[in-house]
Design goal:
The protein contains 2 helices and 5 strands, in the order αβββαββ. The chain has about 120 residues and is an alpha+beta fold. A hairpin with a 7-residue loop joins β2 and β3. The N and C termini lie far apart (about 35 Å). The mean pLDDT is about 95. It binds guanosine-5'-monophosphate and zinc ion (ZN). The site of guanosine-5'-monophosphate has 13 residues, from β2.
Length: about 120
């Protein structure tokens, strides 16, 4: 596994060095509650390895990209969400503020269709 990146918040969370409310973990991904939830249910799914943005995943990491999405589905099912949104912000212009790639899984209320 690639080394954690010094100073990366989500590498520290993946390594268990910061307290978060974990909702799921396997060999390659971790999911935890967002500290500033935008809806009654809001968690983040991250790869354990440091990948800064969606643009930085390699073709060889395609299974990891799939794992992130399937984890979102699993979590939504486990939490009984009848509908939900999965979003990944990419780069500053796309609304990304933490540069360790992550999926938002948002639900628990009826969501508006607008994306931004
Ligand atoms: P972005 O804006 O990069 O797409 O999303 C980053 C998300 O990380 C935000 O929704 C923000 O609330 C969340 N976040 C930032 N710092 C922390 C933290 O220390 N703990 C948790 N659980 N979430 C965080
Ligand atoms: Zn990182």
């Amino acid at each position: 596994m690639a080394a954690a990146v010094q100073g990366c918040l989500f590498c520290r969370i993946a390594a268990g060095q910061l307290p978060v409310e974990r909702v799921y973990e396997n060999d390659s991904v971790v999911a935890f509650k967002d500290i500033h939830p935008q809806a009654p249910f809001h968690c983040l799914v991250i790869p354990k390895v440091h990948v800064a943005t969606l643009n930085d995943f390699t073709v060889e990491q395609r299974a990891l990209v799939g794992e992130l999405l399937l984890t979102a589905k699993l979590i939504a099912t486990e939490h009984g969400l009848p509908g939900y949104r999965v979003a990944m912000n990419v780069n500053h212009e796309g609304g990304q503020s933490v540069f360790h790639a992550h999926l938002h899984v948002v639900g628990g209320r009826t969501l508006k269709s607008a994306l931004g």
